[in-house]
TrEMBL record:
Any single biological process term in GO: ergothioneine biosynthetic process
Keywords associated with the record: Methyltransferase, S-adenosyl-L-methionine, Transferase
Record protein name field: Histidine N-alpha-methyltransferase
GO molecular function per UniProt: L-histidine N(alpha)-methyltransferase activity; protein methyltransferase activity
Gene: egtD
Family: Belongs to the methyltransferase superfamily. EgtD family.
Provenance organism: Amycolatopsis alkalitolerans
Length: 322
């Protein structure tokens, strides 16, 4: 089968440049950090898929339970002709929405957008094969930058699932929600998945599984920096940690230096010194309360029309109208 054509909004050169910028600023900060989007090269996307099947990682299953139960209702309420999925990855849960919208009869176009061309290519191929007649337009891009360029006829529904909105710091989250609102026309839709605050043990285990898959996923970011910027990180000299920040109500993923070292990053023209015990923050994954989600959607110009959770109240799904 021929490779599907993707609409590429970020060229490989842009990605290198963006990583260089993030590495330079993140590694010169007092608390070293890198943005979570750098997990997702081909291997990172595969490792994330593996995470979604782990017994400890409940968000995927909890969200799927709700989407499975409510897909027909989402189709009925929205009558969407276009489904846009931000950060779609393998588009696995998307099938529930596609099935619901196709059965209702309104859906014409599916627009998956992802930073990983590899993950997107596989997803587009699979969806095209499974949904003949559906117009599938894969977009390679960063949803914080490439929202204005999305194709498809209204009414559109933008799905931002999995709790990925939790990767934004609160101020960036509002900016992002407003930017989604701005590209939509009044009467179009946002479907938003948010992981909910719960006991610290459940949260910590979800980000530090017994099989060590999340550790490999976390360490993969160092491999990405090595490959793209020619750095000489030795992943074995860093330890994976998950940390529940009870004040901010977010999980942090960290890579802690096991010893003193200097890492060379020629592609960013810097050497970075690590003291033993120092860590890089690689992700925040915010957890939400229902009232907080409602307030942030209202503040961003959306009207919350439906709110659902799974049977154990672990994960929230909002359907909001622009
Ligand atoms: C894909 C951002 C929703 O925050 O739970 C999984 C990524 N990080 N395990 C999350 C992730 C560690 C995931 N999101």
């Amino acid at each position: 089968m021929t490779e599907p054509e993707l609409d590429v909004h970020s060229e490989p050169g842009d990605l290198t440049e963006a990583l260089r910028t993030d590495v330079r600023s993140g590694f010169s900060a007092a608390q070293k950090w890198l943005p979570a989007k750098w997990f997702y090269d081909a291997r990172g996307s595969e490792l994330f898929e593996e995470i979604t099947r782990l017994p400890e990682y409940y968000p995927t299953r909890a969200e799927r339970e709700t989407l499975d139960r409510e897909a027909a209702e989402i189709a009925r309420v929205t009558g969407a002709r276009t489904l846009v999925e931000l950060g779609s990855g393998s588009s696995e849960k998307t099938r529930l929405l596609l099935d619901g919208l196709r059965a209702y009869g309104t859906l014409k176009t599916f627009v998956p957008l992802d930073v990983s061309p590899a993950a997107l290519t596989e997803a587009v191929k699979a969806i095209q094969a499974e949904y003949p007649g559906l117009d599938v337009r894969g977009v390679v891009g960063d949803f914080t930058e490439h929202l204005g360029l999305l194709p498809g006829q209204p009414p559109r529904i933008v799905a931002f699932l999995g709790g990925t909105i939790g990767n934004f710091l609160p101020a960036d989250r509002l900016k992002f929600l407003r930017s989604v609102r701005d590209v939509l026309t009044a009467g179009e839709w946002l479907l938003l998945g948010t992981d909910l605050v719960k006991d610290a043990g459940t949260l910590m285990r979800a980000y530090d599984d017994a099989a060590g898959v999340t550790a490999q996923f976390n360490l993969n970011m160092l491999r990405v920096v090595n490959r793209v910027l020619g750095a000489d990180f030795e992943p074995g000299r860093f330890a994976h940690e998950s940390y529940w920040d009870a004040e901010h109500e977010w999980i942090e993923m960290r890579l802690r230096a096991r010893e003193d070292m200097t890492v060379h990053i020629p592609g960013a023209a810097i050497d970075v010194r690590f003291d033993e015990g120092e860590y890089i923050r690689t992700e925040i994954s915010a957890k939400f309360r229902p009232a907080g989600v409602a307030a942030e959607l209202a503040e961003s110009g959306f009207t919350l029309e439906r709110w659902w959770t799974d049977g154990q109240n672990r994960f929230g799904v909002s359907l909001a109208k622009a």
